[in-house]
Amino acid sequence: MQTITRKAYAKINLALDVVRRLDNGYHEVRMIMQTVGLYDELTFQKTDGGIVLTVDMTSSSRDAARTREGARLPLQTDSPNGAVPADQSNLIYKAAKLLLDSSGVTDGVSIHLRKNIPVAAGMAGGSTDAAATLLGLNALFGLHYTKEELRALGVKIGADVPYCIQGGTALAEGIGEILSPLPAPPAAHLVIAKPDIDVSTAFVYRNLHLETVMLHPDIDGMIAALDRQDLKGIADRLGNVLETVTVPAYPVIAQIKEKMVSHGAQGALMSGSGPTVFGIFEHSEEAQSAAEDIRTQGLAGQVFVTGFEP
Ligand code: ATP
After folding, report:
1. Is 160 tagged catalytic?
2. N or C: lower Cβ tally within 10 Å for the chain?
3. Nearest CA to ligand 1 atom 9
């Protein structure tokens, strides 16, 4: 087997709570993670040596106004808004290097990324690509690492990588790497909308004042709702403490949430550190009309209708 293709799925946070700031700069979190049906595609091909990465941005994966449609990105060391670096700073490159170095494989690999997931959006786009790389190269080179071993490697790249290796529905604790699987929510229609603003994760955590956060998401209540397969109970408990930073700073986030609810969403929330917003709908027509309205009103440049992915 010389070539392998893998899908790298995005995630949303049904709930995100920050417990405390740690001395090492990380934050202790409690999050309910959920894979969604939006994915990047990665192709891995064996070569004689070295790691070569090429990136294609689909028009949906970045702000069309900022980068040329269909452009193949040149090698670059910094990352302009909405673009993905095709150099050693890419998490795919880091994951490939880590796996090849730790296993002693001397062959090389050529990796092609087709990027569909919005970038710097709170959907773990980079982490899921890193996870797909660990899984893909494990298979391509017949390394037989267990998922647990891959998760231990993955956390060296990023706190969300272990979850992305596992996927599905999970409670993530610690810095996000302590995972407990949960039952998948009942099927629903999701609208995912990324407004054309750039929100840095560092900015959000720097401006999070935990002592003033009065409302923390009811994570245990959501776990109970997942257990009883109660979509309304899940939607009623959507919560993300990082909205206390982003919603006042970027009013478009609240506008998109309101638009989703006005079209019948059972609930709507910002994912991760944003700015992407998702809405949960029981009926497909409502989801489609919400997406259409968000697009035509220019509230978000990247809008998807999808569902939960087990
Ligand atoms: P998270 O939800 O984990 O905070 P995110 O969705 O907010 O992640 P990413 O899409 O992972 O953010 O991108 C954050 C930055 O990481 C980008 O601006 C980009 O420069 C860099 N990056 C490195 N590798 C990748 C990759 N494979 N895909 C996307 N971004 C990458």
Report:
1. yes
2. N
3. 120
Question: Measuring CA to CA, how many Å separate 232 from each of 186, 211, 273?
Answer: 10, 30, 24
Tokens 């992407």, residue located? 276
Pocket of ligand 1 (CB under 6 A): 79, 84-85, 89-92, 119-127, 129, 160, 201, 272-273
pTM above 0.90, yes or no: yes
Q: Edge to edge, what strands does the sheet with 277-281 contain?
A: 267-270, 277-281, 189-194, 302-307
Residue nearest to atom 3 of ligand 1 (CA): 124
CA of 224 to the centre of ligand 1 (A): 32
Q: Are 287 and 191 in contact (CB under 8 A)?
A: yes
Q: What is the DSSP string of 71-126?
A: PBPPP-SS--TT----STTSHHHHHHHHHHHHHT---EEEEEEEE-SPTTSSS-HH
Given 17, 160, 196, 259, which residue is catalytic? 160
CA 52, CA 112: separation in Å to the nearest integer? 8
Residue pointed to by tokens 């955590």: 205
- Is the distance from CB of 150 to CB of 130 less than 8 angstroms? no
pLDDT in single tens digits along all 310 residues of the chain: 699 999 999 999 999 999 998 988 889 999 999 999 999 999 999 999 999 999 999 866 654 333 222 222 322 223 444 689 899 999 999 999 999 999 999 999 999 999 999 999 999 999 999 999 999 999 999 999 999 999 999 999 999 999 999 999 999 999 999 999 999 999 999 999 999 998 988 999 999 999 999 899 999 999 999 999 999 999 999 999 999 999 999 999 999 999 999 999 999 999 999 999 999 999 999 999 999 999 999 999 999 999 999 9
Instruction: Note whether 115 and 40 are within 8 A (CB).
Output: yes
